[in-house]
Amino acid sequence: MSYEPGTSECRLLIDSKEQIEAALANLIRLENTDHIRMQLLAVYNQLEGLHDLRRAQRQSTPEPAGAGRDETG
């Protein structure tokens, strides 16, 4: 990912999602891991939902003057 997180919470969510992506990439090479991958994907989707909420909250909060950085985290 090549974008700057908007908050430290977003950074934690992004890091957590990246770690799950790495685990999924490893598990796909192993047999009999379908159920584990499905569970990890569900957790990933929950984290994505939290991240979407954080982004929406951040976009609805007015920024202080001079804080016009482009933050998509």
Compute the separation of the termini in Å: 10 Å
Rg (CA only)? 15 Å
Helical percentage: 55-70%
Number of domains: 1
Question: Could you walk me through the main structural features you see in this protein, from its secondary elements to its overall organization?
Answer:
By secondary structure, this protein is mainly α. It has one domain (8-60). 64% of the residues lie in helices and 0% in strands. The protein has helices at residues 8-27, 34-60. Helix 1 (8-27) runs antiparallel to helix 2 (34-60). The model has no long low-confidence stretch (mean pLDDT 85).
Summary keywords:
about 65% helix; about 70 residues; mainly alpha
In brief:
With 73 residues, the protein is an all-alpha fold. The chain has one domain.
Give the SSE map.
Blueprint: H1 8-27, H2 34-60
Helix pairs in contact: 1-2
